Each structure stands twice: as C-alpha cells, then as structure tokens.
Input
Amino acid sequence: MADTHGFDVVIAATPSVLRKALRGAWKSAGCGDTGTGAVPAYVPVPAGLDLGALTTSGGQLEIPQQQLDAELLPEIDGCRLVFGVLAQLTLADPPVPSARLLDLTATVRVEVPIGLLPGSLDVGIRLDGLPRGAVDVEVTGGDPIAGKLDQFLAEYLHLAYCNGGPAGPVDLGVPTIPHELDESGQALSFGGNAYTVDTHLEFYDDQGQPGYRIEVSRPDPGHVLISLPSYLRMFDLIGDGPAPELADPMGVEARLEILAELEAPPGAYTVRFDTAVVTVGSITPAPGLEGTNYTMNNGSLFGLLENTLRTRLGRQGADLVQGFGPRTVPVPTTGQVAALIGDLFHTDLAARGQLALWTPQAGGERFEARDVATRARADALLIAVNAAAGADIGAIGTLVPAGREFAIALAGPVVRAGIEAARAGNGWAGVDLPRRVERDGSRADVRELDVEPVDGAIRMTGALTVVDAILGSIDVDATFRADAGLRWHPDGVLDADGIQAMEYQVIGDPDVDPAESGAFWLVALILAVVSWGAGSILVGIVIVVVAAVVGGIAASIGSSTRADPVTGVVRGLAGWPPELARIGRVRAVFHNPITIAADGLVLSGTLEVLSSHAQTPVLAARAGGSYTGTAGSALTLTAGHTGPSATYTWRPGDGSPVAATRDLTHGYVACGVYLAEHSLTVTEPGGATSHSFALVYVANVPPTVDAGPDLVVDEGELVTLVGRFSDPDWTDSHETMWNFGDASATEPGTVVQTGRPPRSEGTSTVRHAWSDNGIYEVTLRVRDRNGGMATDSRLVTVRNVAPTVDAGPDLFTYPSTVLTLTANFSDPGWCDTHTATWVFGDCSTPIPAVVTEVHQSPASRGNAVAAHRYPDRGTFLARCTVSDDDGGTGSDEVVIRAVDVVNRHFEDGFTQRGTGAVAIGWESYLCASAATDTAPRHTASNIVVHGGRRSQGLQAGARERVGVYQRIGANPDWSYQLTAWYDLDQARPGTARLGVDPAGGVDPGADSIVWSDGTASERWSPLTVRVAARSAAITVFLEAYRPDGRDPGPGVERVWFDDVELLAAQPYCPPAPPPPTEVTLDFGDRERGTQFPPEWTEQGFGLRTPDGGGRAVVLLDPPASGSGLRLGLGLVLRLPRPADRVTVTLLNAGGRPLSLTAVDAAGNIRDRAQVPPASPALPAAAVLTGPGIVAVRIDGRGVEAFLVRCRAVLETPVPPGPRPPPGPAGTSAATGPTGRGWRG
Amino acid sequence: MADQITSWADLQARAAEILARVNADARLGRAAAANPLLAIERLDYTIDPEIRPALADQLRLGPGAAGHLADLRREVAVLAGRAVDPDDAEDVRRLLVELGIVAVAPGPVLDTRPPRWRPGGAGPDPLRRLRDQHPVLPPLLDYRRISAARPRFAPERTFVALLDGERTPAVTVVAARLRRGTAPVPVAEL
Output
C-alpha cells in the first residue's frame, strides 16, 4: 500500500481536493485585481452580443460555490471542471416584453490538463491556452423560451391588440388587431328576407377582465388557439320588401376561436395566421337592450340570425387574421444560448491562467524536492516527489483510504533512514551496544537492539540482562519485542494550540490494562526499560523517528511543521502546502490510522481550502424573482440576500435613476413589463459585486369613467354630452365610444386628456340628437391603449316635440279654380310620422290632408296637401293641423281670398266719368296728345253686346288710346289667362287690345303689360292673354287703340268689349330629386400611371397638393388591393358639399401613422384620425365625423402611402322656407334614407 | 507431600533448585517473571500463609520496605480497631464506612483502589484527599504508596494466562541465574 515506486514521497489527492481547491479559488474571485488564478463567482454578460437574431443588453452568469465540481480525467491527464451556472441574459430587442430576461440554468464543463505550473514545481490546473473546444455547455432545466412559450404567445397577441389602439402601432413587427371595425350598408339575408344593416365590430383585450381578455393556448404542440373576444353591434336595420321589421339596434358577444399552425424551425417560431381557421364560439346576447333585441329578432327569424352572424363573424375574423400572413419571431436556440455562455466562460477562464492545487513554493516553507511529477487518475491526482532511478508513477497503487481526501506516502527507505538517524542520534546505534540502563532502581544491560518498520508498527527487538533482579543476587536475561504504532492526536482536528501531533503508541502499554498486557513485577520492570514511559529505549528512539519522518515529509512537500510548544520537538505537520497560490490557505488535518508498512508510511487526511478572505461573506444579489403590481401603486422590490456589510442598488427599469437602497418601494406609472436590476456589493475586503434581474409585471389599471348625469332633452335637440374619465396611468392614451342607446352609429367622441401626474384626467365630448322621444341608456366606454376598459351609463329622457306647421302665405283663389292648399311642416323628431287635416273656412267639411314627408336628420320635413274650390268670392281662413305619432300637434292658418273680374259681363252698371260711361269695377284711361273732338270716349252700349244687355264701348280719336282697366288679386307665379270679346265698328274699324300687366301696375304704357291686339272684322272675336303673376295682383286692360299714323282723320274709331273671363292656374312643381347623400372619389380602379397636376377637380371634389407637386396613380401591392393615388407629402380634399361623415380609405405602407384632419368652412377642426402602418399592407379606412366638414387634410409625412378612395356622406340642405308644392298626391310614404340619429 | 516454605530462609535455601526448574520451562519462566510465588507453588512448593504477605513484600520491595510495610499494617490495625489490608479496595471501603468518613450508598462510590505502579514510582492514590479525615489514614496512605513503588505481582488469572500461553508479553524469553558462580539455567525458547 505504501509503495511509492521509486519516489521519496507521493501525494495523492482525490477529486474532493480538486473540488475544494476549485471552491476556494471561487471564494477568492473577488480578492485579486485581475482574477488570475481564481474561479469567477460572477461573469458579467456584456451588451451587444449576438444571440441568434437577437442582441444582449446585459446580464450575469452566476456560479454558485456549491455547484462547483471537478472530476479527474486520466485520458487528458487532467480534470473536468464543472460549473453550475445561474444565467440571466437580458435582451435588447426581445420579441415580447417577458423575453427581455432569459432566466436559465446551465452546466459548464471544462476539460483542462493538470501539471506543473510554468517555471515552478507547483502543481495546478492549466487554463492558459485553453482551447474553446474544451468548454462545453449544457443548458439545463429545458429551453428557456419553450418553457414560457404560452406566456410569450399571449404577450404577442396582446401587443397585436395594443397596436390597434388610438396611438397607432407600438410594435411594427407585430400585426395589428383593430379595436373597432365599422361597415355600413351590409346585406344580411335570412331565408327569403333581406336587410341592409350597419355594423360595428369591436375586439377586446382587457387583461383585468377574464371574460374580455384574449386567451392563448396550445391544444397541441403544433397549433396555437387564440380566443378573441368580440362585440358585434347591428343597427339601422332596413328590411327589403316583405322582410319583417326587426328590433333595432341589436348586439351580440362572441369569441373568435382562431386556430393557427405553430411552426418551430430552429431559432424561430412562426404562427401561420395566413392559414388560420376561424370559428365562432358561443354567441350570447349583448348586455342591455341590444341583447334583448337580438334575442327577440333571432326568435322571430327562427334562429336564422344566429347562424348568419356566426358565418359573418367567422368570415370577418378570417379576413382579419389571414391578412396577418405568416408571422415569424426569432428566438435564441438553446444551442445559441449555450454557445454564448461557452464563449463567455472560455474568455474568462483563459484569462485566469491557472488554478493552484499544490503550491509548496508559495508559502515560504522549506522545500527540498528535486523534481515533481504528476499523474491524473480517476481516483486521485498523484504528485510524486524526488524520483529515483526507475521510478514509475504509473505503478503507484491506491494510497487514499476510504473516507479520506488525500494521502502522503513516505517511501520505506526514507523511513528506515530516519530510524537509523534516530538511533545514532540517541546512542543506540549498533556500535553503542552493550549499553547499561538504570531505571527505577533496576539496572539492565542492553546487549542487542534492532528497530525497523513492519506492517502496522515500528518494531524494536533486542536482548538485555537485568542485574540483581531477584533477591539481590539473581540476574535475569530476557529478550524483548516492542511495537510502537503512530497516531495523530487529536484525531482529525487540531488541538487548542493548533497542533495535531504525530504520537507514538506503545502497543501493549500496561497503562492500558496491566492484566491484559501481563506487565507485572519483573516483566513490568523490563518493559519499563525497553518501552514504557518517557525514559524507555523505545520511546526515546520513536520520538526522534517521528521528528525525522515529519521533517522529511515536510521538506518533500513544502509544508510546515509544528513543534511541541513545551519541548520544541517537531511532532506536527501540515498535511498540505499551507498556501495555495492566489487562492488562500489550506488547512489539512490528518486522520488515524497512520499506516506503517515495511515499504513505507502512509498518512491520510482531509483538508479545507480557506480563501484569503474566508471570513468575507458571500452574498449574491437576488432580485427576488418576478414581481407583480399595478400601475400607480407602490411596489416594494426586496433584496433577496442581505448582510451587515453589503450595499445595494436598484434600477427599477422604467427610466428612473438608480437607487442605493436595500429595498426599493417604487411606483410604476405605466403598466407593462419592466426589467429591474439589482446589485449587491459586499464591502469587506475580497467582497464582490453581483447583479440580479427581475421582471416586474405591472398590471394595467383600467380607467374610471363618469358618463355624466341623467339628462332631459327634446327630440332632435342637438345635445353636447361630456363624459369624464380618470386613469392613474397618466401616460396612457385613451379612446372612447359613445353608444346613444338608439339605432344610430356609435361615435368615438373628442378626447381631451391632461396626461399629467398623478393621474390623467380626460373628457370625451360628443354631440348627438335623438330622432324620437323615449328614454335612452347612453353608454360611454373608455379604453386605454392596453385594452383596459371602463363603462358608465346615463339615462337621457327625450321629450316629444310637436311639429311646426307653415301653411304658407295668403292666397287668392277664383271661383273656377281648384285651390291646392299646401302646409309645410317640420319635426325635430325625424323618425316621427305625421297626419294632417285641412279646414277651409267656408263651412265645408274638413278633410284629411295628403302628407308627404322625409325622415332625415336633423328634422323630418313634409307637407300636408288638400285641394278645395271656393265657388263664391269672399275671404276665408283655412287651417292646417299636423299631428305626429306621439300626439304632438302643430297648426297654421292661411287667408284665402276668393276673387274674380269685377263686372266682367258689364251688366252690373256704369258710372259716368269725364270721358263717358265706365263700367262699375273698372277704371278708365285716355292716352291722347290732344283731344280732337268732344265725343265721349267711354260708352255703355246696350246695342252692341256679346251677351246680356250691356257692353263697354271705347271710342278712340286720332293718336289715342282709350281703355279701362281692373286690378285683380293674384298669387305670384300663378298663371292667369284673360279672355275678352271685342267687336269693331264695321264702318271704321279700329284695333281692340287686351292687355294684362302681371306686375299689377295701372300704367297702360308699362312695358310689362302683355298685349293682344284684335282687328278681326267678324263680329265679336275673343282676345286672350296669358301671364304669370309677378305680384299679388294682375291688371287687365281693355283698350281701343289708334296708333299714330293710322287713319289720322277726325272722328273716332269704336270698339266694344264684353264678357271678360279670368282663368287662374295654380302652378305645378314636381318634387326635386333628392340631392345625393353620398359621393365617392375612387382611385381604386384608375389606370396605373395616370398623372394629376398639383390642383385639380373631379367628381365635385377639389384636390390640391400642399407641396405644389403632381400626383400619380400607382398599382398597389398586393395587386388585389387595386390602385391608389400616391400621397407623397399629403393631399387636401375639398368635398362637393358639406358632409358630416367622411370615410377615407388609405394604404399606409410606411413606418409612421398618417394624420387626417377634417375642417369645416370656418376652418375649425371637426375631427382627427390616424391611419397606422398596415400590417399586412392592406387598405384601411379612417372615419371622420362632424358637422359641416368641407375638407379633409391628409398629412402624408412622405411615407409610402396611397389614397384609395374618399366617400363623403353629405349633409342634406334644407331650404329655410316652405318648399314648393310637392308632386302628385298619394305619395305618403317616406322617401330617401331614414337616419335614426344625427350627430351634430 | 509438598515441600513447605515457612520462612525467607527456606526460600533462599531452595532458590537454586527453583530457578533451575523455572528456567526449564519457558512459559513458567515468563509467568514467574510476573508472579514468582505462584510459580513456586506451581512447582509444588507450599508457602506458609502466615509468611506469604511478608515474603511477597520482600521479593517485590526488598527487606527494608517490607519491614516498613509490616509496621504500618500494624499501626493501621491499631487505629482501625481491626486488621485491614490497605491494598484491598473493598476492605478499605468498609473501614472508611465504619469510621464514618464516607457514607453508605446511595451516593457516589469512592474509588478506594490502591495506587498503581508506573515507571518511576507509585501513581496517585485516590484517597490522598482524605489524609486528614482520620488518624488511620496517614499510615494507610503511606502503606499504599510504598506498596505501589514497585510493580505488583500478577493476579492468578493473569499468571495462568501467561502460563497457558494466552498472553504474549513483550518480554519473550526470560532466564534467571544466580550471580555467584551458579551457571545459568539454559534458556529455552518459547
């Protein structure tokens, strides 16, 4: 066992010694200035390292001391160092927030040779020149990405949802899930019933409400199942033909179940959205009236509605999701992580040069070895000192006993040499015999003596004579054999003086049990001489042998000796060189037994490696795992490891400065995932600084909202609603949605918020008018950019408003005329329907009017028409009363004057005037330069008559115009036909004239008069004139006309007029075609390459570029998207007419959002919108709403963006006064679109 | 009939004969080195019990010390009121109880064993702290100290073990011889 095979001393160290040296070196990591010769406790991870397609931002590799291990590798004559690693890698560009920190464990194995350190006889682990291939890393505990894949997928989908928020995409590499999708005029059919409907589809992801949160799971490793909560609102339901009326609005909630393939090629995860299958989960009625309406409608449609909605939602979901295309997210592979750790370890270890294992020259002790050889075996590292010729380190057997960590074998010859030296030194060499010894009054002559190691003892044999042993005269001759073993005292530990002495132990010592040893009387006396007690021969020799052995070993291994503090005799030995270079001290203790054999001596023991700063505590920073909190609330980041001599820092990760504190109570303003960094520095000598990272999950705090107090308004009243919200996360942006409880579209409202600490206060303002009376539950929902929602409702009581009636201006009517009476009315409740009645004021029976009305915001307009004939002249008061379907009534009156041509048959008498007899009711006139005779110019003829007994005669002298005229009440624009019969003097025929002044003037010379001349020779011919009245009267002129130059002779020409007849025609105005309610400018089908100047007009739109440059039509990519007008820096669209809703469809393929601004005629901004970059690049619509929008300004910002179309819903102009009479009666049905609500 | 030794002179007279017979038997020789009286008795000599203590003391300690021990034994007997063997632990214990120096059990058992010999002289006496407790103790302690100044004879079981070879002492061969002209008995190896 003790055969050293030619070496003076052989030291055998088990792997345990390597392990302890390794751990000692670890403990000393913080001691040196360069780290040479030590094992790193922490390896920092620099920023900027490639980790697959990602990049590190920092991190740390922590090597816990207890996870250091070592094993010997005979094949490389070295060892394998094993480092357990707690790795924290932080990523600069993680695909999802939680991937910012990769927390993993790894095992690093480094195969490295053991040998003499350069230029010395010290032995150590050679790290200099360490090849990269010698470092192997195994990531333990599984793939750090795969283990969190579900969480990462959920975060990815949440990012996609946040991208659809009001502030535009927050992560351009992630698809965008829009929060809302509005579509109008959608066709729905159920069996044979068809409807058009407007829809509002909304998606939710409120992390605080499980029912409204996007859920992500993996039903199997190859698929991901995304459950997307949605709300579908349908309103403005218009049935086609016989389709039954449906309750309006209605709403449902459902989850879109999106099953997409999940591919996991190395270094990436790909979600195949493009082939995703979308199904619709359970469809449930939305809360409130909408859900009730849905249930009712679905029942009346025998369940067909649910099936249709399921199909529709599924299609919409598939269109949305498949548009995302395949989405690939790069992730580091475990191999890449292992390679990075391996690189860091290799670089670090190679720079450390060596790790000392056995450094006899380091401690300044006596070291007299000539040479040192090493050999790594599986069970022990052999260090062989002083080789003799033929020494063979490979032949050395096992030296270390079980349970021990090292052994020192001293060769037999060395032991014997020590014994011989001890005998000689004590006078017991062979030449010194015989030698007399006196002990306890007895005398003995030692004649023979041999001392040598045998198995188990140092044996002394010899012969002596005890003189006068018995009765004073009897000598006793005796041979003896005494064995002395060696042992350590104390065993396995050092005593109070730090001594572990090598002691002899006389085998058979009577002190132990005299009865057993037989040491009585003479035997005892002989043994007292030979081996008992300090004065015995054996003890005297063994003590020196011990000193010689100890000294020899110490000199061979460079260890220190320990002397008896009293006698100064060397008895103790440090089992290992006391210094481990750059590591610290070694405290070795020996354990019994000391093995003595004929071929040598074996000492064995255990050791501890004490770092130079063994008392310095080892504290690794512990950030405490992950934290969860809520935005705006204090969260305490707690140091997981603490100590009296430690200092700490915390960097919260939200941009706040580093805080030098152990526990940091910090309030995160905004929700999100933060990377908090914690450091701990042990301030004692040799103390190290370590870092630890933790993810802080700060949950979103949804806003709170107040929709405002209940309200009482009139129908049609444009009301400004202001809702207020508050959010502790004052950095959040918010979007709002107003649901007015009627069948109108939801509106986003205008959001204004403070965005200042300690909380963001905001308002959402919207204007709305209700089309009908009732009680409406108005709901305001506020959603922050993280999907957190809050909802509040207010009740709005809408009162009915009676219609306003305008019966129009006073009218003239004529006995032969059928008068059509038209009263216009308006009702701010534009969904009200109306009936009307006319009372004519002539004691005739009132009759219902024919009502024609248009139901369109902001008020319904209509008229009530009835025809009546007033047979008698007179003045009448007619009244029209209009009633709405809610019982409101309004009325108006109109004065009807029934008139006719007075004395039109000239039978009612004449009055004598200066020029003759003038028919009553008529006025005379004479236009002459000078009278040529005295004959009367006006006569009442009873001879020349057309009918009856009188006619009006007129006699015109030369260059005279003689006539009568009469003003008759008229209605402007009416047509009047006057007919008068005339007769000429056959003897001296003149000219008869009938004139009508439509302006009602009395000047016969007025140019406005329409004349008709008669010169017919027949008796009694008619003259007819037709005019359109231009004022409230027309004037009829009957004249004898003798113009200058015709028959200038003296005398008069006679003309008779009789039977004047007036016919009045009420004008007929067909209803004007309704103005267009929607205009569209579409570039989607334009020919590619079409060029436009800086300013141009088409389809009523005016277009102008802000930069003065032209624009061109390009083909969009993908081609299925059609064409578009390249926006460049932007475009200003001027609408054909003011609009209250403009939908602009754009494709934004750039990196920034497009801004759209709607302005009214006064330049006031009515609405704003943004179109984020589309992902995938598909057109998206922005809706701008507000009253009186005349132009939309698109700020292109120079990004790659295109205008596809602009559609404007125009306001309907309503003339201020009564409308012209409507068309034919009987069209009581409402015409035109019937909006149910109107947004101011 | 066994030859009886009744005095020191008898023993001296038979010394040569006894040595010869002991030296002739190696085991007996080694056993005799541990207890000569038992060895003598093994050779069919009988020893008068009356002189056996004095004979043992003389062999072990020499004439002077043996006489001193006899005086002390008598003094102890006078002071104790009865004969006492100071090297007998139980006898001494009884004496101390009788004198009221130690209590009867229960209580800690006082070690009353005599001091042991060790190279250099007697070892410590466990009763030394009682020296002033009673007049009998000083002579008793003196007796025990002197008696322990030289190695004691082996008890019979040890002697028998040596004789039977059940014990192998470090002293392997023992041969005794008279110095005055007597040729040593030939040495026989074990």
Q: What stands out?
A: Residues 1214-1240 of chain A have pLDDT under 50 and may be disordered. The first strand of chain A starts at residue 7 and ends at 13.
